[in-house]
Design goal:
It contains 9 helices and 11 strands. With 281 residues, it is of the alpha/beta class. α1 packs parallel to α2. The longest helix is centred in the last third of the chain and has 25 residues.
Length: 281
């Protein structure tokens, strides 16, 4: 359909697609597909369009969890590789935009309304200032949105996932040591991500009954597993430290926005726990 465009948000676990009419921002026909059900991103796109009888598109914009600087793009947390041209062909689109998922989130920040946000302290900047969007899901992502002198914005992707994890106490050093592999660098994403939650939990007790990040989060929020509760508490401490370090390093006076698949599920803990105090240290 020449008046429709495809939008996609491609993570390590799920691929989410929707359709947008030309000149509009409302997304329709949104669907989340499990990546395990497909051999490639091209196949997932093809299935989504086939299910809706779509044979052509005006354009497609696909945001992916990984850097997009090279001709061949690979997801950070899934063995999928593709090119702009291969996705353009799969989408049967006249135009294609391929970008990092957190870069796409950064572009969205000026368009978010009050109903789209939950504020955890602080005050809104009175003038345009640099913003950060940051958060854990299958992996860990971050991007910045900088105001331009003549008006408008510029999105700046980042790879904070590969930075060192900030540990401050002996207990944290011991905890990280249990998660490390000899000779392999331990980064923020090894703890601040879905997989990191499970690593943290298993480091406390390898024989613990929970076997997925979702189960650990659910048990922690239900206060039904002591190790899960301790894992979530430390997880939030590390999120706050990394977010705070990023904010002070970039002078993000426009705010730090938490995104990704995990933050919405723990918003109550973020609001009532130590997050804000640690973030401000």
């Amino acid at each position: 359909m020449p008046d429709l465009s495809l939008v996609g948000d491609i993570g390590g676990t799920n691929s989410r697609f929707g359709l947008v009419e030309q000149g509009a921002t409302f997304i329709q026909n949104t669907v989340a597909l499990k990546n395990d059900d497909f051999a490639s991103l091209e196949e997932a796109i093809g299935q989504y369009l086939s299910d809706r009888g779509i044979k052509s598109l005006a354009a497609a914009a696909i945001a992916v969890a990984g850097p997009v600087e090279s001709e061949v793009v690979s997801l950070t947390n899934r063995h999928w590789s593709f090119t702009r041209d291969s996705l353009k062909r799969a989408a049967k689109a006249k135009h294609m935009r391929l970008l990092n998922d957190f870069e796409a989130l950064a572009w969205s920040l000026p368009y978010l309304g009050r109903e789209d946000l939950v504020q955890i302290g602080g005050e809104k900047s009175e003038r345009p200032a640099l913003k950060i969007v940051f958060g854990p899901g299958t992996g860990l992502g971050m991007a910045m949105l900088a105001p331009l002198p003549g008006g408008g914005w510029m999105a700046l992707p980042s790879e904070i996932a590969h930075a060192n994890l900030p540990v401050a106490t002996q207990e944290e050093f011991d905890w990280r040591r249990k998660m490390e592999k000899p000779g392999v660098a331990f980064t923020t994403e090894d703890a601040i991500s879905g997989g990191g939650i499970l690593k943290m939990y298993r480091a406390l007790g390898p024989d613990g009954p929970l076997s997925t990040p979702e189960a650990v989060l659910k048990a922690a929020l239900a206060e039904s597993d002591e190790a899960a509760m301790k894992t979530l508490d430390q997880f939030i401490v590390w999120i706050a430290r990394v977010a705070g370090d990023a904010a002070i390093t970039t002078q993000a006076r426009g705010g730090v926005y938490l995104a990704g698949g995990i933050a919405p599920s723990i918003i109550g803990k973020l609001q009532t726990g130590p997050f804000r105090g640690i973030f401000e240290k």
